């Protein structure tokens, strides 16, 4: 099914599965609560949270990560947003669902030009030691094709997907943000180019979900919720 994008004078057709909305209308699992739990700027500050399944969100600075996560959680300002890149400086843990929660969402500092070496060390330690990690979401700004920092992060995460024993404890999911900012005339080139870059640098990455958190109605948010629920073995997430 094709969903019509409308953003001011823009009208863009993007192919997207329609099953998400049909399933979510009868979903048994709802986002009834989401709250900040803890922040970690060092490895010894990473909290223990009762082994609830965890999902980690990564993205280059100013890719729209916090805005998208607020939309997914049905909140306007749970995660701090800013037009200035780099406002997230710690690993931030959010409990989703009534206490003790069904899922823990982990928001991380952006990588790239504004990233810091210590953030990379914190990321690697968290990923390599967190047994409850189920999926890493890597977000890309749809206004641009992937830059060297994006490609390096994709390849780096891809290299961590399997343990030395050959098991795969978590999966990697790409998300394209700010789809409303892609010019109509460029959509047919930008999205396929990003998809090709993702596959070439991380062949096991799941196909990207295309989103916009500022369009009305928002686009792709239900798809992200359903993806989170699938990753954690829950009923569909629904606000």
Automatic annotation (TrEMBL):
Which InterPro entries does UniProt cross-reference here?
Answer: EngB_GTPase, G_ENGB_dom, GTP-bd, P-loop_NTPase
Which ranges of the sequence are coiled-coil?
A: none
Domain EngB-type G stretches: 51-234
Pfam families for the chain: MMR_HSR1
Q: Which PROSITE patterns match?
A: G_ENGB
What is a GO molecular function of this protein? metal ion binding
- Keyword GTP-binding listed? The answer is yes
Going by the UniProt record, its keywords in alphabetical order are: GTP-binding, Magnesium, Metal-binding, Nucleotide-binding
Q: Name one GO cellular component term.
A: mitochondrion
Q: Which domain of life is it from?
A: Eukaryota
Q: Which PANTHER family match?
A: GTP-BINDING PROTEIN 8 (PTHR46498)
What's the name of the protein? EngB-type G domain-containing protein
List the source organism.
Mycena belliarum
Organism lineage reads as: Eukaryota, Fungi, Dikarya, Basidiomycota, Agaricomycotina
